[in-house]
Design a protein that fits this description.
single chain, mainly alpha
Length: 67
């Protein structure tokens, strides 16, 4: 299970297919150098996104790919 503490860079290195989930949530700066070191929780805050909802969506997506 992914938590809000993981950085965008770590998440994308581990699960590159999750990029459309982040883009769909309004995080269009995935390639930004600063975004690579930013936690998902911090990025959600900056973008006005509910971090808990985003984490649920990310984890649901990852689980669906594992099946």
């Amino acid at each position: 299970m992914i938590t809000q503490d993981i950085t965008i860079g770590e998440l994308l290195r581990s699960y590159p297919d999750v990029a459309p989930v982040l883009m769909g949530a309004g995080m269009h700066c995935l390639g930004c150098p600063s975004a690579q070191a930013e936690s998902i929780g911090d990025a959600a805050l900056v973008h006005g996104i509910d971090a808990d909802e985003l984490m649920a969506e990310i984890n649901k997506f990852i689980e669906s790919k594992a099946e």
